[in-house]
């Protein structure tokens, strides 16, 4: 690895070269020149063979040096413009400082073309017992039958690993949604139809996840099922525990649920009238077809 200021690069064969602000360490490979502007201290290149190093004198205002690796192993270069200082723009995101987004030449559209579909996030929200997980599985089966690649991020499943360190306190519940939203964004960027199934009770947190994606790529599905219907189902026995006071802060009992105001899809179920999960899944599939997500 090579460190230049805050920038670390993969280079070729192991060599060391002392540099100062008035020197440029130049690496050669296969007759091509690899230049790195010196910033003082030592620069070490590690990697393949057939690489030599030399130093040349340059002025302090050397500008437009290009850091590249022509070792034939597929690495590409990074342009660095200097006028006495490193002008690479680093970022600080949250508690992470000195980070740089690395862009790849294979982009979302290339992956979508390969899969013949468009990546998006289908965010299924609703009370416990409203049928979110059942709906996610039915939708995944329907898409799979059509030759479309989908993946489910189920709230409980994510708490088995990714979010296993989080409790059900308000702050941790918000972090649970944030993490799931970020992972869903990556799946969508990979060209996959990501189905996120979580209670996600607050509009603000759902809207924050929506804002992570391009307009139209976050599809909110609201399982509009009355509390009494959800409680009568009670598949995990959680409502019973909440009513007995053994679970505190349970959504729908002693913690609020904020229904979506502008969900793309609303699936209503009332007591005595309930479509099958497969029928409801087809409504989502029809939406995806109309919006062009099932073709590249």
Automatic annotation (TrEMBL):
Catalytic activity: adenosine 5'-phosphosulfate + ATP = 3'-phosphoadenylyl sulfate + ADP + H(+)
Gene3D superfamilies given in the database record: P-loop containing nucleotide triphosphate hydrolases
Signal peptide per UniProt: none
InterPro entries on file: APS, APS_kinase_dom, P-loop_NTPase
GO CC, one annotated term: cytoplasm
Broad EC category: transferase
Pathway note: Sulfur metabolism; hydrogen sulfide biosynthesis; sulfite from sulfate: step 2/3
UniProt KW keywords: Amino-acid biosynthesis, ATP-binding, Cysteine biosynthesis, Kinase, Nucleotide-binding, Transferase
EC number(s) on file: 2.7.1.25
Chain ranges of the APS kinase domain: 118-267
Single GO BP term: cysteine biosynthetic process
GO molecular function terms attached to this record: adenylylsulfate kinase activity; ATP binding
Protein family membership: Belongs to the APS kinase family.
Function: Catalyzes the synthesis of activated sulfate.
HAMAP family membership: Adenylyl_sulf_kinase (MF_00065)
This protein's name: Adenylyl-sulfate kinase
Organism: Penstemon smallii
Source taxonomy: Eukaryota, Viridiplantae, Streptophyta, Embryophyta, Tracheophyta
């Amino acid at each position: 690895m090579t460190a230049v200021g805050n920038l670390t690069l993969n280079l070729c064969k192991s060599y060391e070269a002392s540099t100062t602000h008035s020197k440029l360490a130049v690496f050669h490979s296969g007759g091509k020149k690899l230049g790195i502007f010196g910033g003082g201290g030592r620069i070490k290149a590690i990697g393949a063979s057939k690489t030599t190093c030399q130093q040349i004198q340059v002025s302090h205002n050397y500008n437009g040096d290009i850091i590249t690796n022509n070792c034939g192993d597929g690495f590409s270069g990074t342009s660095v413009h200097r006028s006495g200082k490193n002008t690479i723009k680093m970022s600080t995101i949250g508690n992470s400082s000195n980070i740089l987004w690395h862009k790849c030449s294979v982009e979302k559209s290339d992956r979508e073309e390969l899969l013949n579909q468009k990546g998006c996030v289908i965010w299924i929200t609703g009370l416990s017992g409203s049928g979110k997980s059942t709906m996610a599985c039915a939708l995944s089966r329907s898409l799979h039958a059509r030759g479309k690649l989908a993946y489910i991020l189920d709230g409980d499943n994510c708490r088995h690993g990714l979010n296993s360190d989080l409790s059900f306190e308000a702050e941790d519940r918000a972090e649970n949604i944030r993490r799931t939203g970020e992972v869903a964004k990556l799946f969508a960027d990979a060209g996959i139809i990501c189905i996120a199934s979580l209670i996600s009770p607050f509009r603000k947190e759902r809207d924050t996840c929506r804002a992570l994606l391009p307009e139209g790529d976050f599809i909110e599905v609201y399982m509009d099922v009355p509390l009494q219907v959800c409680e009568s189902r009670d598949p995990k026995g959680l409502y019973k525990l909440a009513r007995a006071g053994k679970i505190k802060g349970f959504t729908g009992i002693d913690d609020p649920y904020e229904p979506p105001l502008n969900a793309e899809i609303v699936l209503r179920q009332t007591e005595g009238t309930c479509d099958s999960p497969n029928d409801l899944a087809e409504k989502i599939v029809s939406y995806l077809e109309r919006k062009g997500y099932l073709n590249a």
